Amino acid sequence: MNLRLSALALAPALIAAAPAAVAPGELGLVQKHLQSVQSMTANFTQTDRANKVLTGVLTLKKPGKIRFQYEKGVPILIVGDGKALTFIDYSVRQVQRWPIGNSPLAVLLDPSRDMTRFAKVVPGVDPRIISVEANDPKHPEYGRITLVFLRSTSAPGGLMLQGWVALDSQNNRTTIRLTNQRFNAPVSDGTFRWNDPRRASGPK
Question: Which of 67, 74, 143, 146 could potentially form a cystine with 133 if both were Cys, beta carbons 3.0 to 4.6 Å apart?
Answer without folding.
Answer: 146
